Task: inverse folding
């Protein structure tokens, strides 16, 4: 508790926290990171495993994750060339730390979150 | 490790994970949650402490957080009426779990994240 609460005031003003929460701003990105937790995947395999993601959305998400240094792309010289995506050390640390904590929280509180849906009543404002 | 990796396949397809990551989709929302960690705040105090947030953005963020059941609004019958915002139990669990984990990760890896900026080279594609 100590470190976090002591830093609360700084965190509020910390641009790095905003940069980090932006990592979750695109719905699919965390899903792809979790999908790569089991090891390197070819693009098509990843798309099938995730389900419901369009080809365009997958391309955009992988480009963002490569740009953030969370995912790496490996090209194997064979015919036809094989290309796989894998977590970098940085990406793995994000999945195994904050994203795991979020998954645990969802397990415990996801139903409460979905129950408390909708905007507050207008007469509250 | 066991629980999380065993659930990786399910998490990928779990709409609740997507609902939870959406909580971080709006840049200011996590910042406000952390700002309320120290206790209930009046709107103006909160805005001053956060810094850089417009009145409109604060209104929209509070409305979302109330709608998700993460923040509650308390009105005290006095003249003039006093209104304060505070974390609900659900909101506090989000801050003290996943958001704290994200803050710890930023402390450890924030610089790496900022260094690895930009999109991958075009010839990678």
Result:
């Amino acid at each position: 508790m100590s470190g976090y609460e002591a830093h609360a005031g700084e965190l509020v003003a910390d641009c790095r926290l905003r940069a980090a929460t932006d990592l979750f701003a695109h719905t699919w990105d965390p899903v792809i990171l979790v999908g790569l937790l089991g090891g390197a995947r070819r693009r098509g395999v990843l798309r099938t495993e995730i389900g419901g993601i369009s080809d365009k959305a997958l391309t955009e998400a992988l480009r963002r994750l490569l740009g953030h240094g969370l995912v790496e792309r490996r090209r194997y010289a064979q015919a036809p060339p094989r290309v796989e995506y894998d977590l970098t050390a940085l990406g793995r640390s994000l999945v195994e730390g904050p994203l795991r904590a979020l998954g645990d929280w969802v397990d415990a509180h996801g139903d409460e979150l979905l129950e408390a849906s909708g905007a507050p009543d207008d007469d509250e404002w």
Summary: The longest strand of chain A covers residues 71-76. Chain A has seven helices and three strands. The domain at 27-107 of chain A is CATH 1.10.10.10 (Arc Repressor Mutant, subunit A). The two ends of chain A are 34 Å apart (CA to CA).
